[in-house]
Amino acid sequence: MVSTQSNSFNPFDNKNKRKNRNDSKFDLLQPLLLLAPSGIWLLFLLVIPTFIIFELSLVSNIKPGDIVNPNGWDNYIRILDPLYLKVIGKSLFLATNSTLICLLLGLPVAYYIAQKVPKRWRNLLLIAIVLPFWTSSLLRSYAWITILRPTGLLNTVLNSLGLPALELLNRTPAVLIGMSYSLLPYMILILYAALEKLDQRQLEAAADLGANPIQVFWKITVPQTITGIAAGCFLVFITALGDFINPELLGGASSMTAARLIYNQFLGSTQNWGFGSALSMTLILLVSIAIACLIKLGEIRPHKSR
Protein backbone atom coordinates (compact mmCIF):
# COMPACT_ATOMS: atom_id res chain seq x y z
CA MET A 1 0.00 0.00 0.00
CA VAL A 2 1.48 3.35 -1.05
CA SER A 3 0.98 6.18 1.38
CA THR A 4 0.87 9.71 0.11
CA GLN A 5 1.79 12.76 2.17
CA SER A 6 -0.74 15.50 1.87
CA ASN A 7 0.57 19.07 1.57
CA SER A 8 -2.08 20.76 3.65
CA PHE A 9 -2.12 24.54 3.79
CA ASN A 10 -1.56 26.00 7.26
CA PRO A 11 -2.80 29.61 7.52
CA PHE A 12 -0.78 30.18 10.70
CA ASP A 13 2.56 29.74 8.90
CA ASN A 14 2.35 33.04 7.01
CA LYS A 15 1.10 34.78 10.11
CA ASN A 16 4.05 33.51 12.13
CA LYS A 17 6.50 34.54 9.39
CA ARG A 18 5.10 38.07 9.34
CA LYS A 19 5.31 38.21 13.12
CA ASN A 20 8.95 37.07 13.03
CA ARG A 21 9.79 39.72 10.43
CA ASN A 22 8.17 42.42 12.55
CA ASP A 23 10.04 41.21 15.62
CA SER A 24 13.36 41.29 13.75
CA LYS A 25 12.67 44.85 12.58
CA PHE A 26 11.85 45.88 16.13
CA ASP A 27 15.06 44.25 17.36
CA LEU A 28 17.00 46.39 14.88
CA LEU A 29 15.18 49.60 15.78
CA GLN A 30 15.34 49.13 19.55
CA PRO A 31 19.09 49.89 19.92
CA LEU A 32 18.73 52.89 17.61
CA LEU A 33 15.90 54.28 19.73
CA LEU A 34 17.93 53.82 22.89
CA LEU A 35 21.01 55.47 21.39
CA ALA A 36 19.13 58.32 19.68
CA PRO A 37 19.08 60.83 22.60
CA SER A 38 22.79 60.53 23.40
CA GLY A 39 23.64 60.27 19.69
CA ILE A 40 21.86 63.55 18.89
CA TRP A 41 23.51 65.17 21.91
CA LEU A 42 26.97 64.08 20.78
CA LEU A 43 26.27 65.04 17.18
CA PHE A 44 25.41 68.67 17.97
CA LEU A 45 27.81 69.22 20.89
CA LEU A 46 30.83 67.16 19.82
CA VAL A 47 30.90 66.01 16.20
CA ILE A 48 29.68 69.19 14.49
CA PRO A 49 31.81 71.55 16.68
CA THR A 50 34.87 69.38 15.96
CA PHE A 51 34.30 69.73 12.22
CA ILE A 52 33.88 73.49 12.66
CA ILE A 53 37.17 73.67 14.57
CA PHE A 54 38.87 71.63 11.83
CA GLU A 55 37.51 74.01 9.18
CA LEU A 56 38.77 77.03 11.13
CA SER A 57 42.17 75.38 11.49
CA LEU A 58 42.59 75.56 7.71
CA VAL A 59 42.22 79.37 7.69
CA SER A 60 45.22 81.60 8.34
CA ASN A 61 44.93 84.58 10.71
CA ILE A 62 41.16 84.38 11.05
CA LYS A 63 39.52 86.55 13.70
CA PRO A 64 35.94 86.87 15.00
CA GLY A 65 33.68 88.15 12.24
CA ASP A 66 35.98 87.16 9.34
CA ILE A 67 34.71 85.02 6.48
CA VAL A 68 35.76 81.38 6.75
CA ASN A 69 37.71 80.53 3.62
CA PRO A 70 39.96 77.47 4.06
CA ASN A 71 43.26 78.06 2.27
CA GLY A 72 45.72 75.37 3.38
CA TRP A 73 47.71 73.77 6.16
CA ASP A 74 49.74 76.80 7.20
CA ASN A 75 48.51 76.70 10.79
CA TYR A 76 49.60 73.09 11.19
CA ILE A 77 53.01 73.87 9.68
CA ARG A 78 53.32 76.71 12.17
CA ILE A 79 52.95 74.25 15.04
CA LEU A 80 56.28 72.71 13.97
CA ASP A 81 58.02 75.89 15.07
CA PRO A 82 60.43 74.99 17.93
CA LEU A 83 58.71 77.51 20.21
CA TYR A 84 55.34 75.77 19.95
CA LEU A 85 56.84 72.29 19.97
CA LYS A 86 58.45 73.25 23.28
CA VAL A 87 55.02 74.20 24.65
CA ILE A 88 53.52 70.88 23.54
CA GLY A 89 56.53 69.08 25.01
CA LYS A 90 55.94 70.93 28.28
CA SER A 91 52.35 69.71 28.33
CA LEU A 92 53.44 66.12 27.67
CA PHE A 93 56.08 66.44 30.40
CA LEU A 94 53.57 67.65 32.99
CA ALA A 95 50.98 65.04 32.00
CA THR A 96 53.51 62.18 32.09
CA ASN A 97 55.01 63.14 35.43
CA SER A 98 51.60 63.75 36.99
CA THR A 99 50.56 60.28 35.85
CA LEU A 100 53.67 58.69 37.39
CA ILE A 101 53.16 60.55 40.67
CA CYS A 102 49.51 59.50 40.83
CA LEU A 103 50.46 55.89 40.10
CA LEU A 104 53.17 55.79 42.78
CA LEU A 105 50.90 57.39 45.37
CA GLY A 106 47.63 55.75 44.35
CA LEU A 107 48.75 52.12 44.03
CA PRO A 108 49.63 51.59 47.72
CA VAL A 109 46.46 53.36 48.86
CA ALA A 110 44.23 51.37 46.50
CA TYR A 111 45.93 48.10 47.48
CA TYR A 112 45.50 48.84 51.18
CA ILE A 113 41.79 49.65 50.80
CA ALA A 114 41.08 46.68 48.51
CA GLN A 115 43.06 44.02 50.39
CA LYS A 116 43.69 45.09 53.97
CA VAL A 117 40.70 47.17 55.07
CA PRO A 118 37.57 45.31 56.28
CA LYS A 119 34.68 45.52 53.85
CA ARG A 120 32.52 47.55 56.22
CA TRP A 121 35.05 50.41 56.16
CA ARG A 122 35.89 50.42 52.45
CA ASN A 123 32.96 52.55 51.31
CA LEU A 124 33.73 55.13 53.98
CA LEU A 125 37.35 55.41 52.83
CA LEU A 126 36.31 55.66 49.19
CA ILE A 127 33.91 58.49 50.07
CA ALA A 128 36.78 60.26 51.84
CA ILE A 129 38.90 59.93 48.68
CA VAL A 130 36.25 61.48 46.43
CA LEU A 131 35.45 64.29 48.88
CA PRO A 132 37.73 66.77 47.00
CA PHE A 133 35.44 66.36 43.97
CA TRP A 134 32.65 67.99 45.99
CA THR A 135 34.46 71.32 45.83
CA SER A 136 35.41 73.38 42.80
CA SER A 137 38.78 72.67 41.19
CA LEU A 138 39.33 76.43 41.17
CA LEU A 139 38.97 76.56 44.95
CA ARG A 140 41.39 73.65 45.34
CA SER A 141 43.98 75.47 43.27
CA TYR A 142 43.58 78.64 45.34
CA ALA A 143 44.04 76.51 48.46
CA TRP A 144 47.38 75.30 47.10
CA ILE A 145 48.37 78.92 46.44
CA THR A 146 47.74 79.62 50.12
CA ILE A 147 49.89 76.64 51.09
CA LEU A 148 52.78 77.11 48.63
CA ARG A 149 53.24 80.88 48.51
CA PRO A 150 56.40 82.32 50.16
CA THR A 151 54.47 83.33 53.28
CA GLY A 152 52.14 80.35 53.13
CA LEU A 153 51.48 77.44 55.42
CA LEU A 154 54.30 75.23 54.12
CA ASN A 155 57.06 77.80 54.58
CA THR A 156 55.65 78.83 57.96
CA VAL A 157 55.99 75.24 59.18
CA LEU A 158 59.49 74.93 57.69
CA ASN A 159 60.63 78.16 59.33
CA SER A 160 59.27 77.02 62.69
CA LEU A 161 61.38 73.87 62.34
CA GLY A 162 64.47 75.84 61.44
CA LEU A 163 64.47 74.68 57.82
CA PRO A 164 64.94 76.94 54.77
CA ALA A 165 61.88 78.15 52.91
CA LEU A 166 60.97 76.63 49.54
CA GLU A 167 60.21 78.66 46.42
CA LEU A 168 57.55 76.45 44.80
CA LEU A 169 54.78 78.76 43.65
CA ASN A 170 54.89 79.85 39.99
CA ARG A 171 57.22 76.96 39.21
CA THR A 172 56.88 73.51 37.67
CA PRO A 173 56.83 71.65 41.04
CA ALA A 174 53.76 73.62 42.11
CA VAL A 175 51.97 72.65 38.89
CA LEU A 176 52.84 68.98 39.41
CA ILE A 177 51.58 69.15 43.01
CA GLY A 178 48.28 70.72 41.97
CA MET A 179 47.70 68.36 39.03
CA SER A 180 48.63 65.26 41.01
CA TYR A 181 46.35 66.28 43.87
CA SER A 182 43.44 66.87 41.50
CA LEU A 183 43.86 63.62 39.55
CA LEU A 184 44.90 61.23 42.31
CA PRO A 185 41.30 60.17 43.20
CA TYR A 186 40.76 59.00 39.60
CA MET A 187 43.81 56.76 39.83
CA ILE A 188 42.87 55.35 43.24
CA LEU A 189 39.29 54.50 42.24
CA ILE A 190 40.32 52.70 39.04
CA LEU A 191 43.14 50.80 40.76
CA TYR A 192 40.81 49.86 43.61
CA ALA A 193 38.32 48.34 41.13
CA ALA A 194 41.13 46.23 39.63
CA LEU A 195 42.80 45.21 42.91
CA GLU A 196 39.51 44.20 44.51
CA LYS A 197 39.27 41.35 41.98
CA LEU A 198 42.64 39.81 42.83
CA ASP A 199 42.64 36.03 43.08
CA GLN A 200 43.40 35.45 46.75
CA ARG A 201 44.21 31.79 46.13
CA GLN A 202 47.19 32.74 43.98
CA LEU A 203 48.44 35.18 46.61
CA GLU A 204 48.20 32.53 49.30
CA ALA A 205 49.85 29.90 47.10
CA ALA A 206 52.75 32.22 46.31
CA ALA A 207 53.25 32.94 50.00
CA ASP A 208 53.15 29.22 50.85
CA LEU A 209 55.81 28.55 48.21
CA GLY A 210 58.15 31.04 49.85
CA ALA A 211 57.75 34.07 47.58
CA ASN A 212 58.58 37.38 49.22
CA PRO A 213 56.19 40.38 48.95
CA ILE A 214 58.13 41.92 46.05
CA GLN A 215 57.95 38.70 44.03
CA VAL A 216 54.25 38.35 44.79
CA PHE A 217 53.65 41.92 43.65
CA TRP A 218 55.48 41.60 40.31
CA LYS A 219 54.44 38.05 39.43
CA ILE A 220 50.89 37.90 40.81
CA THR A 221 49.46 41.37 41.46
CA VAL A 222 50.76 43.28 38.44
CA PRO A 223 49.83 40.67 35.77
CA GLN A 224 46.28 40.44 37.12
CA THR A 225 45.74 44.21 37.34
CA ILE A 226 47.73 45.43 34.33
CA THR A 227 44.60 46.53 32.45
CA GLY A 228 43.40 48.53 35.47
CA ILE A 229 46.82 50.14 35.86
CA ALA A 230 46.84 51.05 32.16
CA ALA A 231 43.29 52.44 32.35
CA GLY A 232 44.15 54.61 35.35
CA CYS A 233 47.34 55.90 33.73
CA PHE A 234 45.65 56.77 30.45
CA LEU A 235 42.72 58.49 32.17
CA VAL A 236 45.02 60.62 34.32
CA PHE A 237 47.30 61.38 31.36
CA ILE A 238 44.41 62.46 29.11
CA THR A 239 42.93 64.69 31.81
CA ALA A 240 46.29 66.21 32.72
CA LEU A 241 47.11 66.92 29.09
CA GLY A 242 44.17 69.31 28.82
CA ASP A 243 44.40 70.80 32.31
CA PHE A 244 44.19 74.59 32.28
CA ILE A 245 43.49 75.74 35.84
CA ASN A 246 46.52 74.33 37.65
CA PRO A 247 49.18 75.57 35.17
CA GLU A 248 47.45 78.95 35.01
CA LEU A 249 47.19 79.54 38.76
CA LEU A 250 50.17 77.60 40.12
CA GLY A 251 52.68 77.81 37.29
CA GLY A 252 52.72 81.46 36.38
CA ALA A 253 54.20 82.66 33.11
CA SER A 254 56.93 80.01 33.18
CA SER A 255 54.48 77.10 32.79
CA MET A 256 52.98 77.73 29.37
CA THR A 257 51.06 74.64 28.24
CA ALA A 258 49.08 73.71 25.15
CA ALA A 259 45.78 74.46 26.90
CA ARG A 260 46.96 77.93 27.94
CA LEU A 261 48.31 78.58 24.45
CA ILE A 262 44.96 77.66 22.93
CA TYR A 263 43.21 79.98 25.39
CA ASN A 264 45.48 82.85 24.35
CA GLN A 265 44.66 82.29 20.67
CA PHE A 266 40.90 82.47 21.25
CA LEU A 267 40.47 84.88 24.18
CA GLY A 268 43.87 86.53 24.53
CA SER A 269 45.31 89.53 22.79
CA THR A 270 46.46 87.63 19.67
CA GLN A 271 42.96 86.55 18.56
CA ASN A 272 44.15 84.01 15.98
CA TRP A 273 41.33 81.50 15.87
CA GLY A 274 42.82 79.56 12.96
CA PHE A 275 46.05 78.76 14.80
CA GLY A 276 44.14 78.10 18.02
CA SER A 277 41.92 75.63 16.14
CA ALA A 278 44.97 73.88 14.69
CA LEU A 279 46.41 73.54 18.20
CA SER A 280 43.05 72.21 19.40
CA MET A 281 42.96 69.59 16.65
CA THR A 282 46.51 68.55 17.52
CA LEU A 283 45.51 68.12 21.16
CA ILE A 284 42.41 66.17 20.09
CA LEU A 285 44.64 63.90 17.98
CA LEU A 286 46.96 63.19 20.90
CA VAL A 287 44.01 62.42 23.18
CA SER A 288 42.42 60.21 20.52
CA ILE A 289 45.63 58.19 20.21
CA ALA A 290 45.68 57.73 23.98
CA ILE A 291 42.03 56.63 24.00
CA ALA A 292 42.68 54.18 21.14
CA CYS A 293 45.55 52.66 23.11
CA LEU A 294 43.30 52.42 26.16
CA ILE A 295 40.59 50.61 24.18
CA LYS A 296 43.18 48.26 22.70
CA LEU A 297 44.54 47.42 26.15
CA GLY A 298 41.00 46.92 27.40
CA GLU A 299 40.57 44.09 24.89
CA ILE A 300 43.55 42.23 26.36
CA ARG A 301 42.59 39.76 29.04
CA PRO A 302 44.55 39.94 32.27
CA HIS A 303 47.36 37.40 32.41
CA LYS A 304 46.69 34.49 34.74
CA SER A 305 49.76 33.36 36.58
CA ARG A 306 50.37 29.67 36.86
Architecture in CATH?
A: Orthogonal Bundle
Order of helices and strands: HHHHHHHHHHHH
Helical fraction equals: over 70%
Given as residue ranges, the uncertain stretches (5+ residues, pLDDT < 50) are 1-6, 302-306
Instruction: Assign the CATH superfamily.
Output: MetI-like
Top CATH class: Mainly Alpha
From the N-terminal CA to the C-terminal CA, the straight-line distance is: 69 Å
Q: What's the pLDDT, averaged over the residues?
A: 83
**Spatial extent as radius of gyration:** 28 Å
For the secondary structure, the number of strands is 0
Largest sheet: none
Structurally, how many domains make up the residues? Answer: 1
Q: Which percent range describes the beta-strand content?
A: under 5%
Structural class: mainly alpha
The total of helices stands at: 12
Give me the CATH fold name: MetI-like fold
Shape: globular
Regarding quaternary structure, how should these chains be classified? single chain
Helix and strand arrangement:
Layout: H1 11-57, H2 74-79, H3 82-116, H4 119-130, H5 137-148, H6 153-160, H7 172-195, H8 200-208, H9 213-241, H10 245-251, H11 258-267, H12 273-298
Description:
This protein is mainly alpha-helical and 306 residues long. It has a single domain, classed as MetI-like fold (Orthogonal Bundle). The protein is 74% helix and 0% strand. The protein is built from 12 helices and no strands. The chain has helices spanning 11-57, 74-79, 82-116, 119-130, 137-148, 153-160, 172-195, 200-208, 213-241, 245-251, 258-267, 273-298. Helix 1 crosses helix 12 (273-298), helix 5 (137-148) packs parallel to helix 10 (245-251) and helix 7 (172-195) packs across helix 9 (213-241). The termini are far apart. The relative contact order is 0.12. Residues 1-6 and 302-306 have low confidence and may be disordered.
